[in-house]
Design a protein that fits this description.
By secondary structure, the protein is mostly helical. The protein has one domain. 52% of the residues lie in helices and 0% in strands. The protein contains two helices and no strands. The model has no long low-confidence stretch (mean pLDDT 78).
Length: 48
Amino acid sequence: MTDPHKFKPVVARIEASLGKKSHSPSLNTLLRYADACGMKLVIQLVAP
């Protein structure tokens, strides 16, 4: 984790959005979540 103070609000926002079918986390939120976890976000399209 890069900054533990950033981690809690980002995780809370993502968890709150998961219960709503009308809203998904934004790309920016996912990028911030990955950064807070010390990870990088990878989005990949694959054939079924």
